[in-house]
Amino acid sequence: MTQVSQPARPILEVDDLRRTFGGVRAVDGASFAVEPGRITGLIGPNGAGKSTVLAVIAGSLRPSSGSVRFEGDELTRVPSWLVPRRGVVRTFQLPSEFARLTVLENLVVAAPGQTGESLRGAIFARRRWRSQEADIVARARALLARFDLGDKEDLYAGELSGGQKRLLEIMRCLMVEPKVLLLDEPMAGVNPSLARRIERYLLELRDEGLTMLLIEHELGVVERTCDPVIVMAHGRVIAQGPMSDIRGREEVLHAYLVG
Ligand SMILES: Nc1ncnc2c1ncn2[C@@H]1O[C@H](COP(=O)(O)OP(=O)(O)OP(=O)(O)O)[C@@H](O)[C@H]1O
Ligand SMILES: [Mg+2]
Fold this sequence. Notes:
Helix content is 36%, strand content 22%. By secondary structure, the chain is of the alpha/beta class. Helix 3 (103-110) packs parallel to helix 7.
């Protein structure tokens, strides 16, 4: 008896998404789906609209039109501060840690429902940690150990290397226990050995069932981690499929070479 495996139902569906800035059509009718339990790559030349798509999915930018459905529900109507609580969390293209909080504090304040969701709250909350937030501190420490940063918890986040800040940002997202993690060039500017470590961590997270959408310029990384890959140019999706199929496609080469 043969069993035909059905494609998984998408966890995230982006449909005819548009976003303009003045006269610039940053996203110009992009549609794609993200299946659960995979790392879907989002690639394309500079200015293609990748970060804008991510910001709209994460709720930090409103679309001009179009829809984003998450587990079947329209996400673009959810207030932006509630999107992470639904389970969709993003990293930023530039690191966004609180430089004057310690590494451990950065993780604790990222947990949902904290009085410390704002910087002010974080500082006031500090002295109450021992009693009320012991479980959150324990989760933060477990993440630090897992990502080999256990000895850095008392450093100010501003003292970390560029790569360690990227990792901290990923850990801050994981404190929210997301269902979908949106990553905007998490290895950009990171030294090669730490970049390989981050790559390994992402694969481990995927193997544990976390769904990711990964913007990445380094095609070697995309090839090793992403399946499928969505290619954007000029605000639209111009190709999608496994990286092995995408590499030789003429429209993709054209987008990269001509821009
Ligand atoms: N806040 C903004 N105001 C005005 N224009 C913007 C804004 N954000 C993005 N754009 C423009 O929208 C287009 C798409 O930008 P976006 O940052 O989404 O591209 P990207 O694919 O992430 O590029 P990169 O690979 O360089 O990060 C670009 O032309 C950019 O200049
Ligand atoms: Mg970008």
